[in-house]
């Protein structure tokens, strides 16, 4: 082969390699681009994941603070009626002494940030939320918050296996805590918490009217009779002076839940239904004339307040469900603002 031909062949080879190189180059760029795209996507995902985790952490912190405040500080409306009761009781009486111990207990719990009673109660959450809300996600975070609050000492390890009596779950288990969700039209999330002691829960009662032994018929007079019967039966138990949450009507389950929800009302309000508002006042006045008094020691204050609600019922049933709350009336609430931080205290 002549030198020229060889050179030509070499040139052709060079061109071919260049061409191939040219063709391959865009492939490299595409790979890089794809890699960059994937990295960008995963970075975005990581940012979103971090944001979600941060929001979960903030929700957990908000719930822990809600538990701490509920367990250790009585809201203003409750402190006010307790101070009024302390003023009302006569100097030198056991009732006055009992009320002053209660008052001192409340102040000590607040100053030391410690539970105001050794029984930190059943943990009841009432959540009002907008449509786009995950109940499961909330419960998961709230459960974690309950465990942490228990470790911090704001809650006693208070939940036992009913059949074995074992207490190993840091306040978690079937029915514990108790969650009640309600969808509302507002855009915000409101979380209310009630810590309801066992002693006062034990003196709650449910009556089916008519009740022959009390001569209580299916009317408001019958309702009044059974409520007063429950107050008399509770004397000396349930750590009075207390507050009654009552539901007239409903079925047995709905009635008890509504009676507890009545305890979420502000103590200085009265029912929007005039008949029930009158009955609420009448029950408090009558109970305070019974002479049962604080802790059942006698005195002028048996009840601090009474809240009554009503639900429809079947023609065949007429229930009156009564929930009793002791003086350690631990309930508080928060509105969650941006990023699940507490934006407002509800009591
Ligand atoms: S009834 Fe209330 S005050 Fe009495 S022991 Fe139970 S939680 Fe405490």
Outline of this structure?
This protein is α+β, with helices and mostly antiparallel strands.
Characterize the structure shown.
With 347 residues, this protein is an alpha+beta fold. The protein has a domain at 198-327. It is 47% helix and 17% strand. The protein has helices at 3-72, 76-88, 94-112, 135-152, 198-202, 220-233, 252-262, 274-287, and strands at residues 122-129, 178-183, 189-196, 205-208, 242-248, 303-310, 319-325, 330-336, 342-345. The strands form two sheets. A five-stranded mixed beta sheet has the order 2-1-3-8-9. A hairpin with a 5-residue loop joins strand 8 (330-336) and strand 9 (342-345). Helix 1 (3-72) crosses helix 4, helix 2 (76-88) runs antiparallel to helix 3 (94-112) and helix 6 packs parallel to helix 8. The chain is elongated. It binds iron/sulfur cluster.
List the helices and strands and how they pair.
Blueprint: H1 3-72, H2 76-88, H3 94-112, E1 122-129, H4 135-152, E2 178-183, E3 189-196, H5 198-202, E4 205-208, H6 220-233, E5 242-248, H7 252-262, H8 274-287, E6 303-310, E7 319-325, E8 330-336, E9 342-345
Helix pairs in contact: 1-4, 2-3, 6-8
The structure holds iron/sulfur cluster.
What is the strand content? 15-25%
Main-sheet strand order equals: 2-1-3-8-9
The total of helices stands at 8
Distance between the termini: 103 Å
Structural class: alpha+beta
Low-confidence regions: none
User: N-to-C SSE series?
Assistant: HHHEHEEHEHEHHEEEE
Our Rg estimate from Cα atoms comes to: 32 Å
Distinct ligand kinds: iron/sulfur cluster
Q: What does the overall shape look like? A: elongated
- The level of helicity is 40-55%
Mean pLDDT: 92
Major sheet size, sense and barrel closure: 5 strands, mixed
Oligomer: single chain
- The number of distinct β-strands equals 9
């Amino acid at each position: 082969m002549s030198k020229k031909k060889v050179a030509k062949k070499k040139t052709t080879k060079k061109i071919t390699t260049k061409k191939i190189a040219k063709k391959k180059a865009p492939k490299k760029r595409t790979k890089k681009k794809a890699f960059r795209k994937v990295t960008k996507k995963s970075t975005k995902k990581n940012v979103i994941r971090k944001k979600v985790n941060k929001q979960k952490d903030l929700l957990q912190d908000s719930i822990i603070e809600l538990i701490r405040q509920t367990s250790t500080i009585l809201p203003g409306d409750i402190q006010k009626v307790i101070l009024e009761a302390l003023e009302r009781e006569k100097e030198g009486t056991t009732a006055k002494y009992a009320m002053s111990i209660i008052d001192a207990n409340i102040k000590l719990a607040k100053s030391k940030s410690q539970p105001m009673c050794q029984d930190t109660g059943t943990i009841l959450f009432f959540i009002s939320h907008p449509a786009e809300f995950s109940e499961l996600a909330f419960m998961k975070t709230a459960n974690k918050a309950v465990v942490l609050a228990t470790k911090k000492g704001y809650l006693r390890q208070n939940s036992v296996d009913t059949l074995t009596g074992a207490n190993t779950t840091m306040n978690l288990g079937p029915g514990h805590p108790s969650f009640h969700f309600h969808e509302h039209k507002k855009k915000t999330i409101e979380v209310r918490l009630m810590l309801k002691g066992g002693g006062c829960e034990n003196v709650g009662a449910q009556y089916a009217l008519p009740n022959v032994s009390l001569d209580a018929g299916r009317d408001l007079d019958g309702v009044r009779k059974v409520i007063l019967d429950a107050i008399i039966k509770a004397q000396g138990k349930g750590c009075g002076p207390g507050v009654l949450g009552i539901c007239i009507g409903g079925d047995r389950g709905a009635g008890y839940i509504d009676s507890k929800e009545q305890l979420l009302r502000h103590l200085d309000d009265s029912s929007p239904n005039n008949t029930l508002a009158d009955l609420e006042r009448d029950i408090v006045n009558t109970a305070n004339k019974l002479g049962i008094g604080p802790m059942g020691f006698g005195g002028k204050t048996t009840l601090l307040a009474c809240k009554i609600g009503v639900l429809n019922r079947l023609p065949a049933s007429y229930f009156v469900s009564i929930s009793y709350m002791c003086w350690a009336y631990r309930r508080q609430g928060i509105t969650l603002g941006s990023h699940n931080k507490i934006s407002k205290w509800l009591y």
